[in-house]
Amino acid sequence: MAASMSSSCCLSSLRLIPFKRTFFSSVNPPSKNLILRPIPSFLRTIVTFQKIPTVIVPPLSASSSSPSSSVDLQPIEELPPKLQEIVKLFQSVQEPKAKYEQLLFYGKNLKPLDSRFKTRENKVEGCVSQVWVRAFFDEERNVVYEADSDSVLTKGLAALLVNGLSGRPVTEILRVTPDFAVLLGLQQSLTPSRNNGFLNMLKLMQKKALSLEVKADDGTSESTTDEASVVEVDLESKPPSVVEVEESESVSKIVALGSRGMRIREKLDKELTPDELEVEDVSYQHAGHAAVRGSAGDDGETHFNLRVVSDAFQGKSLVKRHRMVYDLLQEELQSGLHALSIVAKTPAEV
Amino acid sequence: MEGVAMKLPSFKSLAPTAISVASTFSIRRSLSFARRSSSLSAATITADSEPVSLGHRARKDFRILHQEVNGSKLVYLDSAATSQKPAAVLEALQNYYEFYNSNVHRGIHYLSAKATDEFELARKKVARFINASDSREIVFTRNATEAINLVAYSWGLSNLKPGDEVILTVAEHHSCIVPWQIVSQKTGAVLKFVTLNEDEVPDIDMLREMISEKTKLVAVHHVSNVLASSLPIEEIVVWAHEVGAKVLVDACQSVPHMVVDVQKLNADFLVASSHKMCGPTGIGFLYGKSDLLLAMPPFLGGGEMISDVFLDHSTYAEPPSRFEAGTPAIGEAIALGAACDYLSDIGMPKIHEYEVELAKYLYETLASVPDVRIYGPRPSESVQRAALCSFNVEGLHPTDLATFLDQQHGVAIRSGHHCAQPLHRYLGVNASARASLYFYNTKEDVDSFIVALADTVSFFNSFK
């Protein structure tokens, strides 16, 4: 919901989005940006004139220490209970090395898979290491999983999935999307190729769950088609979030900043003395997001895009830069701000 | 115009305001002495103790190396997968697009003429770099893989008959196995593979014995991207030519690191990739002897490679154009030319000498880590290894190793099969880790790697 600030949209900043905004752009044409100087705080609105729809959020920003991103994530409550526990456990462990240790611990305690089950059908495709997954029903028609891998990190990931999904009914398993990998905070600790393996592991486990169901339901054709259509919808509705592509619309939407937006702007302005500062309220893009409903503190101001160009970032890695911004906005994050998408550059990098 | 391939001064003089980035590389000027003077004076500075090593000097040209990843300084040890590019090469690419980008070969106007000149000059530079006798023996392709496919489809399909034999080794890169599989299926030719001897290099005696009257082609690597060994190409060519067979050399790992002289080797075909020799991706080349290329039918059809086009048939251009259909990667070719200049300015013999030392240092320090098994031959008086080591640590999956090295130490190595699955199967492993160096690496890089490796091993060991 837009705040009740002035609806007179002052075009306070007009930007020509540079052609390539990659971290490694080392050759820039003589600056042709029409970026104006820091906007006086009395001007309330920020206008992004045009959004280039193909901006891929650089993997580095996805690897920031913040647990939130501006892409719709499956809410944790929809996950099977054991998996929720695991996610929360990993979220509570901040340091990457400690996360690894946790992961390895899971892997170590994974029940070994009998070698006769290490068949081609049980092998996970797209893994750099070898991973096998086996699935079968228990007496109550819950799916039980067993898995193994020759790589201990992958074994850890497999163990996560086995522990999180084993003993649950098929429908619950099929509802799980790979989004929770982001919540684990492991995504930034694991290279994309390994993450693909994680994705494929999950997919295989879901596929096996479904085929167990189909096989067991051989007589009743109705329920199988139901399952099939449920699967169709689920597996395709949420795209894998391994690489997060910004779902920007090439629509210029003028959103007046509410009080939170203003506070963010003021804080960053004061602490970072930026050369350029853009605060864009994109909460409307996440209006359907379950976490937004009811938990937002301030007029539904939950998601923002930030672009900050400041000398304060000099000499800092991207992770550190993002941390700086998050640290400054701690209060907001704790009172309903859900996600920030941050572009943090030094003046030289623009 | 010029028949000699001179290095043109860069186009900075045309646009003094452009490329302000270049001025931030103040050390570029210190290397400018090498540009003006001949390579002889550059060679007097050896890679010895007191003067700063080649690695330290060269690093300054590579901005990408000066960054942190995951909180640690980047240590890039994956140059066998792709090399980094010096500022001069990036500049050349930028210059092209900024000042004279235009389609080549048929244009009349000024920009087009300039682009064509630079493009053909790049071809000459590549020819000179490998000492080809004529620049028309250089066909620009997308990469070495495409170059091998070109030979396979063009030369192979029209020259191989049922029962003909093509000799490869088990250590070949996939790009020098799969095209021959495809073509042999179509033609009925037979593939034969040379295996490794006890030194873990392809068995040369076996290769010699395999060559027979039936052999039509021997396609082998010059330097192995896994074993770090090199093959005696000159001798192999002699044996092959005795029976009328042709030789294709996959020089992807040799051209960037040492002097490669195609006339001396007398190879019939030679392929290499630009992106492994400080050039951009998207361009590579095939060297082929003139008489061979002249007799080969086209590979891809389209514009540029034709002479006259009618509705029902067309006539084709002379090589190399015959094999360069469509608009080429013009800027990339020009940047590859700049890469050849850059490397030549340093001097390939100097680069090679530096890398031999570094290779030895890498091997020795790596071998001293317990439970490490390095593949390929041991370095000795007679055996010089390339500056790379593929290895495994007992009880530790190479992917785990590479992940931890990257995440906790910023060390970039590669893990997997390195596009050599048959070789890994032969060695009895699923995958290996590989650290590969280039002349912009230093001993300190190797040291960092070893320290990180030891830490990684102990971390995973503590979980056993």
TrEMBL record, chain A:
Question: Matching InterPro entries, A to Z?
Answer: BolA, BolA-like_sf, Fe-S_metab-assoc_dom
The record's subcellular location field reads:
Plastid, Chloroplast
Answer yes or no on keyword Plastid. yes
Q: Which GO terms describe its cellular component?
A: chloroplast
Report the SUPFAM superfamilies cross-referenced here: BolA-like, SufE/NifU
Task: Give the signal sequence positions.
Answer: none
User: Could you give a single Gene Ontology term from the biological process aspect?
Assistant: iron-sulfur cluster assembly
For the Fe-S metabolism associated domain, which residue ranges apply? 88-207
* Principal subcellular localization: plastid
Q: Write out the entry's keywords from A to Z.
A: Chloroplast, Plastid, Transit peptide
Q: What is this protein called?
A: Fe-S metabolism associated domain-containing protein
Organism whose genome encodes this protein: Brassica oleracea (Wild cabbage)
Taxon lineage: Eukaryota, Viridiplantae, Streptophyta, Embryophyta, Tracheophyta
